[in-house]
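Subject: TetR family transcriptional regulator

B.,
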Amino acid sequence: MPAQRADARRNYERILAVAEEEVAAHGADASLEQIARTAGVGSATVRRHFPTRGALLEAVFRERIEVLAARARELAKEEDVRAALLEWLGALTVYSASVQGLATALLRNGELDPEHANPCVNTLAEAGEPLLRRAERAGVMAPGATAVDLVTLIAGIALATQHHPDPAAEADRLLGLAVAGISPPG
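Prediction pasted inline below.
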């Protein structure tokens, strides 16, 4: 039995490594069948480890999402709340615009069944919500937005700029326009 577990772990790691390459090359719609072929496993093995495309994408992006979430938690303690919120949104924007497939993965939160909620969005929203609430209380953010709203906005900006010659710079410019729109008047 331990040999099967070691073999299963190797399969998982191989599938994930291939998936990272395929998503980088083809975005969130990378072929699961191609991932299986390249990893040298059957489609059923891919599905056993990653029952849904969303589960596979979440695994591909998990590490960087955790870094962005940790940064939000650190920034929530900063004195300049507006600068902290803008720094986090900027980092999320640049990363989302720079990594093919991430924006699409973040937007795949539309399933109504909470059991299938997007773990990437949930991680970012849970980490960003305290930062957002502090900004609202300080009067530097118009009330009513949620962290999920902001993550969705960032993903939309990233998608809108994906074919631009410099997607990260254009996404950052569009974020500036969006921030002006969600800032309180005055």
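The CA atoms of residues 29 and 39 lie 17 Å apart.

T.
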